[in-house]
Specification:
The chain is mainly α. The chain has 13 helices and two strands, in the order ααααααααααββααα. It is elongated.
Length: 355
């Protein structure tokens, strides 16, 4: 009881420290978003004379947000969606007037067009579809006050400011964005390999959802890696300050692809190590456990100490070879093959980092 109570403050303290660490890492992004929101209000309210230009700072804040990932894309999606929504709302207003039925028709048309043309760069995420339908509704809903178009202009001001901040003034550093995502994937893969090693040694029975829980965690990080790759490619394509980094970003992007391939091998390894029969998990031969321990250690060091990681990979290969040569069951042969594939993928990630 006392141990449980004493563990709670330490866990809470660790959570607070982690929160402040996240805040420190994103503080510059938050300052950019805050300045852009204030500037958007100033331009719309003080320069253009709009009485309540709340859409301008909202647009800037939504586009820039708390992360520098896909900022420019969100801003462009907002501007295109707003422009399309204006056209839809105006056309419906000219045909049907105002009221509940025209709003329903405008909503259906806006969402349908967003689905039809919202592919690739424009359709990724929900920004484009949401801004299209919201803008079409505003043209109809705010017609009596005469400020519907004014709200649209405010949104365009905020979106254009977001593009200026995200593309011209403070474009994301593509190498840092890719590294942060890559390290996140490697960290979760190391955790999966460590847990898999415990299962292989028979120390802990896998939970009923294993390895599905590992799949969810890995795919969550891979989703972030996909967004990071898109951000890096966009930065070197449209941001003048990042044009000189194209070759470096191309190499880092190629490495990120192999990190994703490594994730597939690790998940296959986790799946192969957890053969539960009648609710029991049987311990596997010692070389299987040793290979997993070495792979976990190599994954933890892959980005920070590639030489040490390569040494662990060589040890994992030796253990996997022993497991394969001494195999008595099919599962042991499968484990050896998957462990060797995992070692090859991880070594490829390290080699690409050093090029």
């Amino acid at each position: 009881m006392s141990t449980s109570l004493s563990a709670r403050p330490s866990a809470a303290y660790a959570a607070v420290l982690a929160g402040f660490k996240r805040l420190r890492g994103r503080l510059f992004n938050l300052l950019q978003t805050s300045v852009a929101a204030g500037l958007a209000w100033y331009l719309a309210h003080d320069v253009l004379g709009h009485p309540q230009p709340f859409f301008a700072p909202i647009a800037s804040a939504v586009c820039l947000s708390i992360s520098n990932v896909l900022r420019a894309q969100r801003a462009i999606q907002m501007i295109i969606g707003v422009t399309l929504g204006i056209g839809i709302g105006t056309a419906v207003q000219g045909r049907l007037g105002h009221g509940a039925v025209p709003i329903a028709v405008a909503t259906l048309v806006a969402l349908s067009l967003a689905v039809l043309i919202g592919q690739g760069f424009i359709g990724q995420g929900m920004m484009f579809a949401n801004q299209t339908v919201v803008s079409s509704i505003l043209v109809l809903a705010l017609y009596r006050s005469g400020v519907g178009w004014e709200r649209i202009y405010d949104a365009l001001i905020g979106g254009c400011l977001a593009i200026v901040f995200a593309v011209l003034l403070f474009p994301a550093d593509p190498l840092k964005v890719l590294r942060r995502a890559r390290v996140g994937v490697l960290r979760v893969l190391q955790a999966v390999l460590s847990r898999t090693a415990e299962v292989a040694a028979g120390r802990r029975a896998p939970p009923p959802e294993w390895p599905l829980s590992a799949v969810d965690r890995v795919h969550e990080q891979l989703s972030g890696l996909i967004s990071a790759r898109a951000t890096a490619r966009q930065a070197v394509r449209i941001s003048p300050r990042r044009w000189g980094m194209r070759d470096s970003v191309h190499a880092a992007d190629h490495q990120a692809i192999h990190v994703a391939l490594l994730a597939g091998s690790v998940l296959e390894l986790a799946r192969a190590v957890a053969p539960v029969v009648d609710g029991r998990c049987h311990a596997l031969p010692q070389p299987a456990h040793a290979a997993l321990i070495d792979l976990a250690a190599a994954t933890a060091l892959a980005d920070s100490d590639p030489d040490a990681a390569s040494a662990y990979i060589a040890a994992a290969r030796r253990h996997a070879s022993v497991l394969e040569s001494d195999a008595h069951e099919r599962i042991e042969v499968v484990l050896a093959d998957v462990a060797l594939a995992c070692a090859d993928d991880l070594q490829r990630v390290i080699d690409l980092r050093q090029q």
